[in-house]
Design brief:
Layout (H helix, E strand, L loop, with lengths): L3 E3 L1 E4 L3 H12 L4 E5 L5 E4 L2 E4 L12 H9 L2 H7 L7 E5 L2 E5 L4 H9 L1 H19 L2 H4 L10 H25 L8 H9 L6 H10 L11 H14 L3 E4 L2 E7 L2 E7 L4 E4 L2 E3 L3 H8 L5 H9 E15 L10 E5 L11 E6 L7 E11 L6 H22 L7 E5 L28 E5 L19 E3 L9 H20 L16
Parallel strand pairs: 1-11, 2-3, 2-12, 3-8, 6-14, 12-19
Antiparallel strand pairs: 4-5, 6-7, 9-10, 10-11, 13-16, 13-17, 13-18, 14-15, 15-16
Helix pairs in contact: 1-10, 1-14, 4-5, 5-9, 8-9, 11-12
Length: 499
């Protein structure tokens, strides 16, 4: 017998799962998040190191704006944003551009000349119109990808137009001087090796002023949603699932390793369909198995943390740097990556986090991951010297949370105990082709089971953080519709209503 029963159990605690759970509990559903106990940071000595650096989609009309507005969290998010003099930089062979408000025109003219810079700027500004066409998909009242006949029809009208116009724009822009780098920049920003034209336009528009850098990176986002979830009465716990109980085509219970059993009226899963099929066994619907076959792993997210004395940073280095090392190669591995610079601590040390995508053609086993991670790390190390020439002289330690290796510490600078939960499993990067989604969608929300809904980065994998926010909001909309609860279910709600 279940020890407790919830209106909604969310499997997974990534960004999309937390967004979905937080919105549902605010709308009146008794909600439990069953997570993996995966931290957003880990500790080596006095240093708290990021696992998955992230920036916030701050443009008007973004999926983030919609979520924050409903949670009354706009002010809380603004407090977490940094305000650097230079928002970001783009570094490529023979090119370095400082990105920020009112900087772009002058930077392009300085780098490529007045005429070429003006032409490049005109193409850059054209992306604003294209990017705004995605607003009705990512920030309106509809789920995206659409759910139900009428919603899918309305969403398809917008998505088909976006597909047509962004494809035509990219056909003209991709080989033009300067803008040929945009595919790599989008791949870096979204941490996806094959962003479609609509995603490229969205990123390039955002990078006119630069990404919104957070204090604490991905940890800051997680903290915000966990606080909103628990303040509103939601629950968050870690647990490994051993079995899913089924009755009349619905999931009714979730059994955990250790013997605990939890009742569920609904389940939202930020898990790959293949994993759900394995848990359900012979009771898995045919539709879920088809969804598992429709997506593929095209890479894994890799992070390398470097702690160094502040003197090892180049002067005027921005908090976010997109490095396009080889525009002629596919935008993954050590040819296209980002560097995220933290704030200097009281001892004069700073954390530089390198984020890259390890390319793959399907799942890799532990041995394959260990080998390819080592190769990627060596490649990134060489590329890093081109951007930060003196970093090795001032290096304190280097470590990846995804490798079973002790921290690299230069001689005589001490040693560090690695936390027991490391190395962590690498986050896969998904790809799929869902119809009528502007080439952005990989999976739908519906699974063939009456009370099982999908969410997670697997839904809109090529849209990065904004895709996760949209997937979380849309999954909450589906779950609340099934439960018969509306957005204004708690019209007089005051719990957690302040920023």
């Amino acid at each position: 017998m279940p020890s407790n029963t919830y209106d909604l159990v969310v499997l997974g605690d990534d960004l999309a799962a937390l967004v979905c759970a937080t919105l549902c509990v605010r709308r009146g559903m008794r909600t439990l998040v069953l997570g993996d106990d995966r931290p957003a940071r880990y500790t080596l000595g006095p240093h708290k190191l990021p696992i998955d650096p992230a920036s916030w989609p701050s443009l008007p009309g973004s999926a983030g704006e919609r979520v924050l507005k409903e949670l009354h969290a706009e002010l809380a998010m603004r407090r977490k944003l940094r305000e650097p003099k230079i928002a970001a930089q783009i570094v490529a062979p023979d090119l370095r551009i400082d990105v920020g408000p009112d900087r772009l025109a002058g930077e392009l003219a300085r780098e490529v000349g007045q005429d070429a810079g003006a032409a490049w700027l005109a193409r850059w500004e054209r992306t604003n119109e294209l990017a705004r066409q995605l607003d009705p998909l990512l920030a309106s009242e509809h789920a995206f990808p659409g759910v139900g006949f009428f919603e899918r029809r309305e969403v398809a009208k917008v998505a088909d137009l976006v597909t047509e116009q962004t494809a035509a724009w990219w056909a003209d822009a991709r080989d033009a001087k300067g803008s040929s780098l945009w595919r790599h920049l989008a791949a870096i920003a979204l941490r996806h090796p094959a962003p479609p034209p609509a995603a490229i336009a969205r990123v390039i528009d955002a990078w006119r002023t630069g990404p919104a850098t957070l204090r604490g990176d991905g940890d800051a986002i997680r903290e915000l949603f966990v606080e909103k979830l628990t303040t509103a009465g939601g629950e968050l716990r870690a647990g490994r699932i051993s079995d899913l109980g089924i009755s009349w085509g619905k999931i009714t219970s979730i059994s955990l390793v250790g013997g605990d059993e939890i009742g569920a009226l609904q389940v939202v899963a930020s898990r790959p369909p293949a994993e759900l099929v394995e848990l359900l066994g012979k009771k898995a619907p045919k539709r879920l198995a088809e969804l598992a076959d429709s997506v593929a792993i095209v890479g894994y997210r890799y992070t390398l943390n470097i702690v160094l004395d502040e003197a090892g940073l180049p002067e005027h280095m921005a908090p976010t740097v997109a490095v396009i090392a080889d525009p002629g190669q596919p935008p993954s591995g050590d040819t296209a990556f980002s560097i995220h610079i933290g704030e200097t601590d009281d001892t004069g040390r700073v954390i530089a986090t390198i984020a890259a995508v390890l390319p793959a053609e399907g799942p890799l086993d532990d041995h394959q991951l260990a080998t390819t991670c080592g190769e990627l790390r060596a490649g990134l190390w060489k590329r890093l010297a081109d951007v930060m020439p003196f970093f090795e002289r001032h290096l304190v330690l280097a470590h990846s949370p995804f490798e079973a290796k002790p921290p690299h510490v230069p001689g005589g600078r001490g040693s560090y105990d690695v936390p027991r939960h490391l190395p962590l499993a690498m986050t896969p990067v998904w790809s799929g082709k869902l119809a009528q989604s502007a080439e952005l969608g990989a999976l739908p929300y519906q699974t063939g089971m009456k009370n099982l809904t999908l969410t997670g980065e697997q839904i809109l994998p090529s849209l990065g953080v904004e895709g996760a926010l949209a997937a979380g909001w849309s999954a909450a909309k589906v779950a609340c519709a099934i439960a018969g609860k509306k957005k204004d279910y708690l019209r007089d709600e005051v719990v957690g209503a302040t920023g």
